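Lab meeting, item 3. Inverse folding demo.
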């Protein structure tokens, strides 16, 4: 599991389209419309992937995504081994802040968390997939959260 921010950016000036003898021209100016967060979990050997775009990157967002992994990706698994970075929101406390204690414990007990080394997030397969996602379908200015969600769904 990994997460990555994506800026919402609109072109500042309309690009000049390509024409005979002239390349397409884009201005460097842009209008920033904030940031969204992209969560990704994958199970490479089964070809499964779960991606969610959220407006924020909070403990609540992480807890909700962990529950989705538990219930949507691995509903029948006895134990889910989840490799991820050691970010400050990745704690059992996040689950207890969002869910009732019994539900938080039920979710937490389904997982075995394996944290990548502090400077080794590149070891995380989901991080690699996020990089591919960004280069294959989010590698341009996108100004709306809904458009990013549509692009991610299509990918």
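The presenter then showed the designed sequence:
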């Amino acid at each position: 599991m990994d997460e990555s921010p994506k800026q919402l950016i609109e072109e500042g000036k309309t690009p000049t389209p390509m024409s005979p003898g002239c390349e397409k021209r884009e201005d460097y100016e842009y209008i920033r419309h904030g940031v969204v967060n992209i969560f990704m979990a994958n199970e490479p050997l089964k070809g499964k992937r779960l991606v969610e775009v959220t407006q924020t990157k909070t403990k609540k967002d992480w807890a909700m995504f962990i529950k989705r992994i538990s219930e949507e990706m691995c509903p029948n698994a006895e134990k889910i081994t989840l490799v991820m970075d050691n970010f400050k929101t990745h704690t059992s406390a996040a689950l207890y802040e969002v869910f009732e204690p019994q539900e938080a414990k039920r979710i937490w007990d389904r997982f075995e968390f394996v944290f990548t080394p502090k400077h080794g997030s590149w070891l995380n397969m989901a991080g690699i997939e996020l990089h591919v996602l960004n280069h294959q379908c989010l590698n341009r200015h996108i100004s709306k959260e809904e458009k990013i969600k549509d692009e991610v769904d299509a990918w």
